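Appendix C: a fully annotated inverse folding record. The material below is reproduced so that readers can follow the format used throughout the book. The structure is listed first as tokens, followed by the designed sequence.
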């Protein structure tokens, strides 16, 4: 509980974006009744003069400073200003870096922002996630030929969460719902079977999941969507189509998303 109604500020400083320090500060704040405390993040600090100005403002505000500075001259200036102005400054990365130096006899790269460096893998994952969203639930069938994997299956067989999970691994995944009354797009039959994966589930498990889905969206129990006869019809149709395109079939009953994704990645590799 704060001792008065004064507004306090924690200043978060970094020579990168400051996300690491901010995450630590906010995790700490959740342990306290901190309504009178706000945070201010200042990133991409390059010069010692910036440190001096930041610390003088912090001294006026009556809070403290948390920082991640990898450049030694900036860290030294932060320490000096903290002593001069009587402002507490918490070095988030310093002790960890020193432990690494002492233990492994190594020296840091001193390059800000390595944690969030936007390398080739990062952009590949972003592109894959955007692709999965664009091609979810058969929305963009013209892009099926660009997919690394196309997941096919009846409704509620985990196609969407699997697509997103695999996208985070950098794979471009499209998914397509199979419905007896809807003719599959021609692009599906233009793909080699090893780029398609069929997902099925035991009928009784699928019945339970669909019934819960109806309840969640407020639809009446007993709708055709959650009728056993309809589910069996859909599964029979789906398996015939999967055999027609020559794709592997995975029964996802009681399988975690991670487990199914591992099997799919094994097919690709």
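Designed amino acids, in order:
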């Amino acid at each position: 509980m704060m001792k008065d109604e004064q507004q306090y500020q924690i200043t978060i400083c970094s020579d990168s974006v400051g996300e690491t320090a901010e995450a630590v500060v906010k995790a700490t704040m959740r342990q306290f009744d901190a309504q009178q405390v706000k945070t201010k993040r200042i990133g991409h600090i390059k010069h010692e003069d910036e440190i001096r100005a930041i610390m003088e403002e912090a001294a006026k505000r009556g809070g403290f400073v948390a920082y991640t500075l990898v450049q030694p001259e900036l860290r030294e200036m932060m320490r000096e200003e903290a002593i001069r102005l009587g402002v507490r400054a918490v070095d988030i990365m310093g002790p960890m870096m020193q432990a690494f130096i002492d233990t492994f006899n190594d020296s840091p790269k001193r390059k800000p922002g390595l944690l969030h460096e936007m390398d080739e893998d990062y952009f590949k994952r972003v592109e894959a996630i955007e692709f999965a969203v664009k091609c979810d639930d058969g929305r963009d069938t013209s892009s099926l030929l660009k997919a690394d994997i196309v997941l096919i299956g009846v409704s509620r067989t985990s196609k969407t969460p699997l697509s997103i999970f695999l996208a985070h691994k950098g794979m471009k995944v499209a998914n397509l719902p199979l419905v007896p009354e809807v003719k599959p797009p021609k692009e599906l039959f233009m793909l080699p079977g090893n780029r398609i994966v069929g997902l099925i589930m035991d009928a009784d498990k699928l019945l339970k999941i669909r019934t819960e889905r109806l309840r969640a969206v407020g639809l009446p129990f007993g709708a055709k969507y959650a009728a056993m006869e309809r589910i069996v019809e859909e599964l029979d149709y789906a398996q015939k189509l999967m055999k027609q395109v020559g794709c592997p079939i995975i029964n996802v009953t009681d399988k975690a998303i991670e487990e199914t994704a591992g099997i799919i990645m094994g097919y690709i590799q």
